[in-house]
Amino acid sequence: MIPHDNKQRCIEVTAADLPLHCPTPEMIAWNSHPRVFLDVTETGTALCPYCGTTFKLKAGEVVHGH
Hints:
Layout: E1 10-13, E2 20-22, E3 36-38, E4 45-47, E5 54-57
Parallel strand pairs: 1-5
Antiparallel strand pairs: 2-3, 4-5
């Protein structure tokens, strides 16, 4: 993932980013909320209940064992 300032509202993720949680390590720590794990494996997307960021699994990604 590319570092960002917590204002980006749609973030594309890959299988390498799983297990996925928000805030991600790339987000600025001072502006963060409690960590919440998100499942993008079933529908390909997940919405963070704290900040409203949408995480979208990159097209063609193959998820193993998550």
